[in-house]
Amino acid sequence: MERAALGPRAPAIGSAWLMWGVTCLLFCYGFFARVTPSVIVDDLMRDFGVGAAVVGNLSAFYFYAYAGMQLPTGVALDRFGARRVIATSAAVCGLGSLLFAVADTLAVAYAGRVLIGAGAACAMIGALKLASIWFPPNRFALIFGLTATIGASGAVLGQGPAAALIAVTGWRGIHIGGAVFVFLLVGLIWLVVRDGPPSGAAAPAARPRLLQGLAVVLRNPQSWFIALTNATMVAPLLCFGALWGVPYMMTAYGLDRPAAGLASSMMLMGHTVGPALIGWYSDRIGLRKPILTVCAVLGVASFAIVLYVPGLPWLLVCGLLILHGAVVGASSVNYATVKENNPIAFTGVASGFVNMTTMGISAVLQFLLGWLLDLQWEGASVAGARVYSMAAYQWTMAALVAVSAAAVAVSLLIRETRCRSVA
Fold first, then answer.
1. Which of the listed residues 18, 301, 317, 400 has the most CB atoms within 10 Å of its CB?
2. Cα–Cα distance, 179 to 98 (Å, whole number)
3. What count of other Cβ atoms lies within 10 Å of the Cβ of residue 282?
4. What is the DSSP letter of 234?
5. Per-residue pLDDT tens for 234-256?
6. Which backbone phi and psi does 413 adopt, to 5 degrees?
7. Phi, psi dihedral angles at 385 (to 5 degrees)
C-alpha cells in the first residue's frame, strides 16, 4: 500500500492509538495465557494424572497452534482486513480459554490450548499491521517495542499475580475470567478497529504478493540465520520463564507457589523494558549484529549462572533473571534485521517466519524438557503431582543452556545492515 494513498495521519492519531491499544490487549492476554501453566504445573499433573512430559506438551500445544497460524494469519489480515480477522481471532481465543477451564479430559484440555494459541496468533501481527497503516513509518520501531512491552506485561501478570489469584479461584476460575475478558474484548475490537482509510489499496492484490514473498524469504539464508538466532536466544524466556521456572524455584529455594511465580516472572519483568530500549539503542548507533551477539552472550551467561552457581544471594538471582529477560529483548533487533535483509514488500511474511520459527522451536523444547525431567524422576509424589529433584532440573536445563548458547554462534552469521535495507 502506498503511503501517499493514505493521506494525512495526524487527525486520526488518537484513533490509531486506540485501535492499536485494543489489539495489544489481546496480545497481553495471549501472553498471560501462554505462561499460566507455569503456576499450575502441580494442579495439571494432579487433575489429569500425568507427568512432566504431558504437562510440557499441554503447554506446548499453545505454541504449536500459535506458530502454525503465523503465515496464514498474515495472509488473512491483508486479504480480509484487520477488523474482521482480529475480532474473529479474539473470539477463538476466548472459546479456547473457556474450553480449557472446563476440561475434564486431557483431550479437551489440549483442544482448549490449541484454540487459545490459534486465536492469540493474530494479536502481535494485527497490532503491527494496524501500526503500518495508521502510524507514520518513523514510529514503527517504537510501536514494535511498545507492543512487545505490553505482551511481556501480560506474562508478568500470568505468574506471580496469577498464582495469588489461583489460590482463591482455582486454576479453572482464572481461565473462566479470562474467557469473559476476551469475549468483551471482541465487541470492543469490532467497535473501534478499522481496516484503513477508504482510499487504501484493494486487499485481494496482497494474496499473490505474500505467497511470492514466502518463497523469497525462505530462499534467503539470512532469514534462517535471523530466525534461528531469535528462537534460540529467547528459548529460556519461553520455556523456563513461561513454564518450568516456577517448579524449579520451588525446588531450588523452597518457595511457595506465589513467591516462586513472582521470582520466575523476574525474567518477564526484564523483558517489559528490553525490546524497546535495545531497539532504540540499535537505531541510534546504526548497528545490528554486534548488539545481537553481545546480548546473546549475556543471555546464556546470566541463565547459566542462575542454574549452576550455588549459594548466590537471592537479590543477585533476581537481578540476573531481570538482566536475562532484558537482553533477550534483542528480539526487536532480530525483527528489524530480517526486514532489512529482505525486500520491503515482504516485511510481513519475513516477520511471520521469524515468529513461527521462534514459537515452533519453543513448543518442541517444552515437551523435550518435560520428557527429560520424567527420565530423571525418582518416584516421589506429593498430592498426586510428581516431584523432581534439584539434580533432575539441573541436568534437564543443561539442554536449554546449550540451545541458548547456539544463539551466539548463529548470530555471527547474520549480515550487518547498518539499519538500512540491503535486500
1. 400
2. 5
3. 23
4. S
5. 999 989 987 788 889 888 888 88
6. -90, -10
7. -105, 135
Question: Which residues, 6 or more positions from 241, have their beta carbon under 8 angstroms from its beta carbon?
Answer: 35, 38, 155, 264, 265, 267, 268, 321, 325
| CA–CA dist 289, 2 (Å, integer) | 30
Pick the closest to residue 364 from 238, 229, 214, 233 (CA basis): 238
Q: How far apart are CA 389 and CA 152, in angstroms?
A: 30
Predicted local distance difference test score (pLDDT) of residue 138: 56
The helix (run of H) or strand (run of E) holding residue 18 is helix 13-35
Domain boundaries 11-411, corresponding CATH code? 1.20.1250.20
Dump strand ranges (E) for 328-410: 381-382, 385-386
Mean pLDDT of all residues in 138-164: 80
Find the distance separating the first CA and the last CA of the chain, reported in whole Å. Answer: 19
The H or E element that residue 197 is part of is: none
Contact 318, 262 (CB under 8 A): no
Strands 381-382 and 385-386: antiparallel
What cell does 20 get? 492499536
The set of cell numbers assigned to 225 is 540465520
Instruction: Write out pLDDT tens, residues 157-215.
Output: 887 788 889 989 999 999 999 999 999 999 999 999 988 765 544 444 444 455 777 78
CA dist., res. 178 & res. 33, Å (int): 8
